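Budget justification, computational time. The allocation requested in the original proposal was used primarily to generate structure tokens for proteins on the priority list. As evidence of use, we reproduce two of the resulting records. The first is shown immediately below.
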Amino acid sequence: MKEETNCRLLIGLGNPGIDYENTRHNMGVLALKAFAKKYGFTFQRASHLQSEIAIGKVNSQKVLLLIPAVYMNHSGISVRQCMDYYQIPVADILVVCDDIALPLGSFRFRMQGTAGGHNGLKSIESHIGTKDYARVRIGIGDREHGELADYVLGHFTKDEVENFPTLFDKAVNFLTLWIQGEITYAFTSRTTEKIKNEKKLGE
């Protein structure tokens, strides 16, 4: 057990393996990697935590990044192991995940709440024993037709990928503000048009 005093834990949800890279369900992982790139964090495999982790500082605040190396439905195992190992309280964690109910590029932040059908959040709730943890959902848009599983496990379109720089700049900015304690209220930031028709994501 290793205590990380006054450490903020950011958790990016997704599925491990090359087959799932850059799929919609891995939006949480993509956002966390964008954050890591911005601040020069380097991920390393932590087999004892069934995760990839990176540790560093942002404006003097110690930050731990966690990407579970287990499938989405079992994310809570890695999260609980990490919280126990580093002795990080629930109040200092933020989970980043995808949401099909939100337009691509929009954000919904809550300090607590239900899983809302998201299996990764369900697993975390089950393993840490509470719904009272912060989470930010990033919209991936809903399918126009076809099966849900095929959509969330599918890759982003070319038009969607073109908006990634703006989307991830927005995500990194939000995560930075949360780390600094400047995000303490629930909010939803929505786009007003389909992402492919926008040059800039709506506020």
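The second record produced under the same allocation is shown here.
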Amino acid sequence: MLDENSLKEFILAYTKGVDLINCIHYSLENNFEKPDDYDDYGCNIAFITGENSSVKDNASLEEWNIYHHNNFVESKITAESATGYGFPPPYNFITENDITINSIEKDKAEVEVETNNGNYIFYIESPAENEYGMHIRSVFLKPQWGGNLIPVIE
């Protein structure tokens, strides 16, 4: 059964993982050396150095990305799947205040996450075989400038 607190905990864990994966990818691209323009990106965490990361290469990052995605999302990915890394990270380390529960039923919920890029709409279902007992069925981006929802995960 879904409840507001468990949904928020789930969303925070998922988005933090995605954001960390994207930040470490950026760090790897820069050989763990902070670029002069890093602060211009508006990332909500400090640059991740080699000393601060247990992930030291792209193969380990890919492995973590697959594990993280498959633990939270209904549709599974493999090593052959597109990764779509980006920087700054998509959710940029949201807080509980950025999360709105739009609807909640016994076995499904719609959760909205406010970011600088627009709002992400998560469709979540339960049960699932992970520690949270729920998974993400789909995610859409509601652009800040308006328009149609953009599929992120389907």
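A brief technical remark on that second record: Residues 4-153 form one domain.
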